[in-house]
Amino acid sequence: MNKHMQFRMGFLYLALAALCAFPVAAQDAPDVGPHPPQPMKPMESHIGKVTGHAKDAKMNYRRYCAGCHGDQGDGNGENAVWLDPKPRDFTMATFKCRSTVTGTLPTDEDLFDTIGRGLTNSNMPIWNTFSDQQRADFVAYIKTFSPRWEKEKAGDPIKIPAEPPVTIESISHGKALFTKLECWKCHGPQGKGDGPSAATLTDSKDQPIRPYNFAGGGDDSRLKCGSTNSEVYKIFITGVDGTPMPSFADVIQPNDAWDLVHFLRTLQVTRHSKENDVLKAAGGKIPAYVEKQSEAPASQSENKAAGGGN
Amino acid sequence: MRMGTQSRFGGKLPCVQFLATAALGVVFLILSSSQAANALPAFARKYGLRCSACHESWPMLNYFGQKFKDNGYQLMNDRDAPIWQNASYWPITLRITPFWSRESVNKVAVDNTATGEAKMTTTGFNLGGLDILTGGTLEKNITFLLVPSSDENGAFHFESANVRFDNLFHSPWLNVKMGKFELDSFISEKRSLTLSASGGGYQLFHFIPVGDGNIFGQVGDNQLGAEWMGHSYNDRTRLSAAVFSSTDGSPDVPYGQNSYTAFFAGSQAFGAGKLGVQRIGGYAMFGVAPTTYLTSDGVPIPGSGIGNKSFSRIGFEGLFYLGPKLDVQVFTQHGSDNAWFGACYGDIISGTCDPANNNTNGATLPTGTRNPTWNGAFVETHYVWNPQFTIFQRSEWVRMSQQAIPGTPSNLGDIDNYVFGYRYNPFMTSRAGFAFHNEYSWIRQRGTSPVTGTDLSTNSVMLGFDFDF
Hints:
Chain A is mainly alpha-helical. Chain A has helices at 3-25, 58-69, 108-117, 132-142, 148-151, 168-180, 184-187, 229-238, 254-267, 274-281, 300-306; strands at 44-47, 50-53.
C-alpha cells in the first residue's frame, strides 16, 4: 500500500469511526429498550460444581428470553400476547416443574433442567445449546426477579422410590386410581385432555389452561416436566404449581403413584413403551381392578366414566 | 509472466484480453457478494422468538439458530407442524438493502493515458438484490426452503429450492434433502454480516486461480444435489455429506455429461465455561468437471462435456466465543485444481476460456504445466456490544502456492481483503428485522490490473438500510 493509499484509508477509517459514533451517540446508550431493574441483585445458583452468576446472564437473557418473559421477568414480553400458554412470570417465583413439594421454591437443578429440556406443549424451546455455565447463569438471573429467593430456601427434593415392575395388575390399579382420583374430569376418559372440566380451567393468573393430552403426543414421550417414568411420578407428588394440577402427596402411596404412571403410559397409545407391551401381551384390554380387602372400593360409576382408557 | 506465453495451439494469448478476463473475474467476485442471506422473520413470527434468539446478529446464526436449521427449521416441539399456525400465516420474508456507497478501483482500462489505465471512483445511491425467502414445515419433519432471488435489476434466479426429510426413523442423524442448497458449513457466507461490494463475500468461498478454467470449485455457491446431514440431539456433533452436479448450481446441466462433486463436513462443539460454547470442524470437497466438449460449427454444445478432471478443497473452520460479547470465526482452505484447469481448459461454455481450449484428441498441455494450488484463511471477529449493536471485521488472505504454468509470477492472483463495520438494529422484535449497516472494505489482487498486469485494488464505503420482513 503506498502512502497515498495509506492516507486515504486512514481518512476513511476516521470517517467510519465517526459514523459508528452516530447511532451510539443518538441514544443514551446503544443498549436501547427496557431493562431489568438496576442494580442487579448479586444472585448465584449452584448446580453441581458449577456456580452461576446472575450478572453474566444479563445479555443472554435479553437475547433469548426477554421477548417472551419480558425484561422485567413478569411474563409480559412483546410476544406474550401471541403465546398460549403464557410465558412464566418469574416475579411470582411459581414454577411448574419441581422436585420439591408443592408451594415451595424449586431447586436450582430444577430450573437448570427445565431450561435444557424445554416445555412441551408450550413455546418454550429446548435450550440445550447453552453450556452448563450459561444455564447456571440463567438460573441465577431468573432468581433476581422475585424477593422470595432472598427470603426462602428451595424446598427439599422429594424421594422417589424404585419403580416396581410393570404388570397388567399395576396398570389395572392405575386405571382404577385414575377414576377414583377424578383425573378424568380434566384429562378426559381417554386422557385426551377433554374431560368435562377441561374448558373451565385457569392458571394462577386466570389464564385459560388446557389439561395435558396424553394421547396426542404420537411417539413423542415428552411430558411437560420430562420424559421418564420417574419424572411423571414426580408430578403426582409435587403437583404442577400455578395450575389446577394438585399434589397427590397426601392422597396416594408411592406404589399407587407408580401404578398410575403405568396406566398413564398406556394412554399414549402410539408410543412404544413397556407399559403398552404389557398391555398388548394381555390382549390389549385392561382388566377390571380386583380390589384387595384392605383397599377402599372405587365406585362402578367412576370406572364407567373412565371408560376404556387404552 | 503468464501473459504473452505462446500457447500450444500456435496462437498467442493476448495480454490485454487475459488480464481483462482476470479483472472481470475479480469484478464478478465482487458483485457476487450480493448474496441471498437467510434470515426469516417468518420463523420468528411462527415461534414467537426474537431475531436474536437464532442470530448472533442477523443473518449470522448463533448455536441455537444452527440447531434450529439442522432440525429442519423446527424447534422440535409440538409447534412445528403448520397445523399450529394461524390460517393466515404466510411464511414469506422479503429482504433488500438500499444503500449509498463509494466505490473506488485503482486501475481500469481507459483510452488516452500512458499506461492505458486510470483510477476510477464512483459514489451514489444504490440497491442490493431482492431476496424472497420462504421456508418452513410442510408437515412435521418435512421442510422446505425456496428462495427466488434477484439482482438489483430484477433478474431472478432460484438461490435455494429444496425439500428436506427430517429425523427419519426418529433419529436426528437421518436428515435428507434434495434440490438447490447451501453447502453445509457453520461459517456461512449466505449469513455473513458483511455486505459491501469489496468485502461482502468470502474470497475463499469463490477463489479460482487467475487463468483457471474450472467450471466449479466453489464452496460458496448453492449447489444442485442431495445431502445427508446428521447431528446429535443437542447439535454438539454435526456431520454431513452431499453429492451434486458440477455445474456450480446452474440448472439444466449445462457442462458435463456425468460430472459430480462430493462435499463432506463435520464439526464438534464443546462448552468452555464462561467463554461459551466453541465449535471446531473441517470440510473436504472432491469433484470432477469436464474439459472436453462436442462442438457444432466450432461452438461447444452445453451438456456434452466429458474428459473429467479433478479438483479438491479442504480446510478447517472454527467458531470461538471469548465470552458473551466477542466471537471469532476462522476458516482455512487448501485448494488444488487439475493441471488442465490450470491451463484454462474446462469452462469454454460460458466463455471463461478460449473455445480453442477443448481437450480433444491430441491436445497437450504446455510443458511443465502442473496442478495450481493455493492456501488461504480468514479471521472474522464480531464484538456484540449488545444484541442490537455489533461491530465486525474480517481479514482474509489467499496465497498461491503453485502456479499452473511455470514462469508465472508466484503471487499472481493472491488476494488480501479487509473489511470492518457495524450493524445497528434500532429495535429487536419477533416481527421484522432492520439494521443500519455501515462498512468499509478494501481488496487487492496481485497482478490482475487490466492492462499493465500490476496489482488491482478496490475499496468500498457503504451505508445502508438492511431490512427484512
